[in-house]
Design goal:
Number of strands: 4
Number of helices: 7
Structural class: mainly alpha
Strand order of the largest sheet: 1-2
Helix content: 55-70%
Largest sheet: 2 strands, antiparallel
Shape: elongated
């Protein structure tokens, strides 16, 4: 998309398509072009929506959401097919730009991806405690990335999931990557005395850092 050209609703392209609006996703801008029939239908629906919004905006938004969900439930295969076709079209037109934006997003949000991976492994083993707060995963991953921006640290289960451990904040701690790889799926009591001391130190430090993190965000 040429950013120097700003289209207005109703602009007609050489192939006969009519400009509708710009869409933004993850910092990227997409142009939405409709044919004449679809453009007129969109204008009609927007005029109806605007009239309803004057009466009760919240109620109208809820009605539109429920209608959209109902249509998707009743026409799931058709909706999925349209989604795949739209994504395929976007990848063909702007594949390189989208991949670059995704790489940049992943680089800035490694802690979010780490939290998702930790929770995924626990879900596979059905080891998530009912009282576990998903925000604790993000909190530990964020602290881990603050300590080392190059992935020098990892989130470890004190009692490994393969040994019957559960996924809850009290069974999680931050460990240096080297120590975490040495521990593997062993208990602390099975490590050398020096490794046990280091693991205990990081267990206490993790509690201190999480409390400090909560205090800083609360302030």
């Amino acid at each position: 998309m040429d950013e120097s050209i700003r289209h207005k609703r109703g602009d007609v392209r050489e192939d006969g398509l009519i400009f509708w609006q710009y869409d933004r996703r993850r910092g990227l801008v997409f142009e939405r072009w409709y044919d004449k029939a679809k453009f007129d239908r969109a204008l009609h629906l927007q005029s109806l929506t605007n009239k309803r919004r004057v009466r009760d905006p919240e109620k109208e938004r809820e009605r539109c959401r429920s209608k959209s969900k109902k249509y998707r439930r009743e026409n799931l295969e058709d909706a999925r097919k349209k989604d795949r076709e739209y994504k395929r079209k976007i990848r063909q037109e702007r594949g390189d730009e989208i991949r670059a934006a995704n790489r940049e997003w992943c680089k800035k949000n490694r802690w979010r991806l780490s939290a998702v991976e930790s929770r995924r492994r626990a879900l596979e083993r059905e080891a998530i405690h009912p009282q576990h707060d998903p925000n604790d995963d993000k909190k530990l991953s964020h602290i881990k990335d603050i300590l080392g921006a190059r992935g020098e640290y990892g989130v470890d289960h004190i009692v490994p999931l393969t040994r019957g451990g559960i996924h809850i904040i009290y069974n999680l701690r931050i460990l240096p990557k080297s120590l975490n790889s040495q521990k593997r799926n062993r208990l602390d009591s099975e490590l050398t005395p020096q490794q046990q001391q280091e693991c205990y130190f990081w267990r206490i430090l993790t509690r201190f850092l999480t409390c400090s993190y909560d205090y800083a965000n609360a302030a």
